[in-house]
Amino acid sequence: MSDHLPLTALRTFEAAARHLSFRAAADELHVTPAAVSQQIKTLEELLGVKLFHRLHRGLALTASARAALVPLQEGFARLGDGLRLLKGTAESSRVNVWMAPAFAARWLLPRLERFVSEQPDTELWINASAELIDSATSRLELTAELMRSEQIDLAIRFGHGNYPGCRVAHLMAAAVTPLCSPSLVSRATQPLRSPADLIHHTLLHDDTPYEGRPGWAQWFEAAGVDDVDARRGLHFNNLQLAMAAALDGQGVALCIEQLAADDIAAGRLVSPFSPTIELDSAYYLIAPEERADTEAVAGFRQWLLTQVAAV
After folding, report:
1. Cα 204 off chain centre by
2. Considering Cα of 167, then 97, then 87, then 294, what sign does the dihedral take?
3. Which end of the chain is more exposed for a tag (fewer CB within 10 A), N or C?
4. Of 79-93, 243-257, 265-279, which gets the smallest average pLDDT?
């Protein structure tokens, strides 16, 4: 075999192996499917091994290809790190972060000014995705391989903490509690003095489909209330919308307390009564092992942990 490293063919193989499709790889690499096929053929001839089984309905990796795929992806990730270092310190200080939209809007954004002040040389790129929760309906399984392919340095995910091939740190626990505008608690007619008083108020539902999400029915059971219809009210598929309605005084929302910490501290929202339901899921910091200890990623991760500890 030649000592020349066939980088183009290897990159083409990595894309085709990840998608299990020459056409999808061609779209990603901005070439034709025929060009992808030719690169794979060249690589197979150069290595003397077969890389794909051509099936009637697609492709399957051979045993050799499966064994080589992850090391190749790690190698390309390291090459990317090296190129960023060659281009200069500014680019190497970039941190690409994934997180759920509600966490980004309700918890992180109010604190970002502090981060910019404390670490002005770090360039944050934030991508909010509703799929960054563990749920039966989520199509996004968070793995080190996925984070490498999407060039994500750090993810903040709501779930159980099992993310293969990643460095995982617990960020914060989560608990659900009723929240509303202070005006509802003390209004002249039908004030909120006990859980039973919710029969006179609009229930705001966060129907985000995360695993173990408690609804109003579960909360009423914990509160010992059995004469309130837990299904009625306004239903939202996004926590931010439910919280916005609560802030506007439109009803009482069952929300993750930690994401409302700033609104509670400022008096914009109050928890009129208990109980608070502790969740099995929590927020986790996740990074591919090869990126976890880089200066920018480690710096942002430590800053996040410090902010949580200060609450």
Report:
1. 24
2. negative
3. N
4. 79-93
- 232: DSSP letter: -
| 162 lies in the same domain as 302 | yes
Six-digit token pair at 258? 């930690």
The 10s digit of each residue's pLDDT in 41-92 is: 999 999 999 999 988 878 899 999 999 998 898 888 888 777 766 655 444 5
For residues 263 and 190, membership in a common domain is answered with yes
Q: Would you tell me how many other CB atoms lie within 10 Å of the CB of residue 265? A: 10
User: Partners of 60 in the beta sheet?
Assistant: 53
Q: What is the DSSP string of 237-276?
A: SSHHHHHHHHHTTS-EEEEEGGGGHHHHHTTSSB--S---
**Which amino acid is it at 127?**
N
Q: Tell me, what amino acid is at 245?
A: A
Q: What is the pTM of this model?
A: 0.66
Domain count, the chain: 3
Phi, psi torsion values for 187, nearest 5 degrees: -65, 155
What is the residue range of 292's domain? 95-173+282-310
d(CA 256, CA 258): 6
Torsional sign, CA 21, 26, 27, 33: negative
Q: How many helices (H) and strands (E) does the chain have?
A: 14, 10
